[in-house]
Design brief:
binds ribulose-5-phosphate, 7 helices, alpha/beta, 26% strand, globular, four-stranded antiparallel beta sheet
Length: 230
């Protein structure tokens, strides 16, 4: 007997959704160009797919030692961002993304280099499974990269905003800095909060990506890849 359509739908787990969007991002890579590459488990899927790309690319500019190692292991050249004025696309995951393309990033402690590479990219293509899409940013604890001597001071500044900053134990960023994860914030105006926190002494980078928000989000859903354009 023929099963109803619902019963035939393939149920995909989060890893399969990540693989799906990692592959879908290949459509945004232009031949002969340098591609900006983010960090994380979704980006790992993208890097693996990039290694199978038929069209040639000039190489990648990477946002972490982790991604650089994976790229090199697959034979993809990693270029120095100082040698590049701009790249056509930056492809990266997110911890949360809202319906305007604002994101929380930094779950993998790579937020500073991610923002640097995103800033030279003409388009930010966010790849994420559907669990990352939220109405308002802030359920995921906000990562903030901080100069080690300022962690207590920055934590106190977050307490004054109603946030509870927790030091990520045993973690140093690729830049030798500490990461605070700030719980309990409701980020109603991402651009304003990003501007404010960026001014605090000791803050290297706040994981709100509003100034460098996504241009496109490829969202992995059980029904396939949904493309959100911002
Ligand atoms: C790393 C990041 C990642 O993009 C974010 O943590 C999402 O990771 P994943 O793809 O593993 O869910 O910002 O600093």
């Amino acid at each position: 007997a023929t099963r109803p359509f619902e019963a035939r739908q393939v149920i995909m787990n989060q890893d399969q959704l990540k693989a799906l969007v990692g592959k879908a991002a290949l459509d945004y890579v232009t031949e002969g160009s340098v591609v900006g590459v983010g960090t994380g488990s979704t980006v790992d899927c993208f890097i693996d797919a990039l290694a199978t790309l038929a069209k040639p690319i000039a190489g990648a500019v990477s946002s972490s030692e982790r991604s650089s190692a994976r790229l090199r292991a697959l034979g993809i050249a990693v270029l120095d961002s100082n040698q590049l004025q701009s790249v056509p696309v930056y492809i990266d995951g997110a911890d949360e993304i809202d319906h305007a393309g604002h994101m929380i990033k930094g779950g993998g402690a790579a937020l500073t280099r991610e923002k640097i590479v995103a800033d030279i990219a003409r388009r930010f293509i966010c790849i994420a499974d559907e669990s990352k899409l939220v109405r308002t940013l802030g359920r995921f604890a906000l990562p903030v990269e901080v100069i080690p001597m300022a962690t207590a001071q920055v934590a106190r500044a977050f307490a004054a905003l109603g946030g509870k900053a927790v030091l990520r134990e045993g973690v140093l960023s690729d830049n030798g800095c500490k990461i605070l994860d700030v719980h309990g914030l409701t980020i109603a105006d991402p651009a304003a909060m990003e501007r404010e926190i960026n001014q605090w002494p000791g803050v290297v980078t706040v994981g709100i990506f509003a100034r460098n928000k996504a241009s496109v989000c490829l969202l992995g859903t059980p029904a396939g890849v949904k493309t959100l354009i911002f």
